[in-house]
Amino acid sequence: KNEVEQSPQNLTAQEGEFITINCSYSVGISALHWLQQHPGGGIVSLFMLSSGKKKHGRLIATINIQEKHSSLHITASHPRDSAVYICAVPSETSGSRLTFGEGTQLTVNP
Amino acid sequence: EAQVTQNPRYLITVTGKKLTVTCSQNMNHEYMSWYRQDPGLGLRQIYYSMNVEVTDKGDVPEGYKVSRKEKRNFPLILESPSPNQTSLYFCASSLWLADTDTQYFGPGTRLTVL
43-72 in B: which are within 8 Å (CB) of A? Predict the structure, then answer.
């Protein structure tokens, strides 16, 4: 099973700050997912990436396959970014199974 | 609208009373999966299905059953629920494999077993 570690577990920021959330995994993968869980509980997929960098609005995700590490950055953070951010990687034996990090609780204060 | 639906959204039941949580997707996705989410443990996979009549165990399948008779539906069955199955459950789907395609999640079902 691919072990996934996220850091930090909790993060509090002031509006406008640059945010970085990290995800490390133990076994080589083909792709990594970043998910966002809203305070109401719903989960949406933010990114799926297998190399380099992807950008969507103020969100940027990067991955370094050799170092088994990914980061999620939020520029000009806003209170509506407050959510739990979760990374997920495929099982080392099957692309059909995902292993999730425990999530990073982000709170952005106005 | 492309979506994954789950029913019920909230359920309180008693130990041993069989229940089914339905999951349906309208995107013609091949892959569907069930997860449970518990504080301190994150999301864990219960069962998944690669196609009609093809299902397989995830990390925590004990106490659960699934079926995939139609592509769009993937119900989760608890034959004899116990309090340790109190959790938040999510169904998800993707076009094909979890490692190559975006996952679409249902709204979640909060289950309490007394």
Answer: 43-45, 48, 50, 56, 58-59
Residue B91: closest CA among chain A residues belongs to which residue?
A43
Q: Are A11 and A105 in contact (CB under 8 A)?
A: yes
Whats the size of chain A, residue-wise? Answer: 110
Buried b (16+ CB within 10 A) or exposed e, A23-41: bbbeeebebbbbbbbeeee
Neighbouring residues of A58: CB distance < 8 A, sequence distance ≥ 6: A74, A75, A76, A77, A78, A81
Count of residues making up chain B:
114
Encode pLDDT of A35-79 as tens digits: 999 988 899 999 998 889 999 999 999 999 889 999 999 999 999
Alpha carbon separation from A66 to A7, A47, A58, B28 (Å, rounded):
19, 19, 26, 35
Q: Which amino acid is at A3?
A: E
What residues contact B52, with CB distance under 8 A and at least 6 apart?
B68, B69, B70, B71
Question: Do residue A95 and residue B33 have CB atoms under 8 angstroms apart?
Answer: no
What digits encode the pLDDT tens for the residues B49-92? 999 999 999 999 999 999 999 999 999 999 999 999 999 999 99
Nearest residue in chain B measured CA to CA from A89: B99
Strands B109-113 and B10-13 turn out to be: parallel
**For residue B24, pLDDT beyond 80:** yes
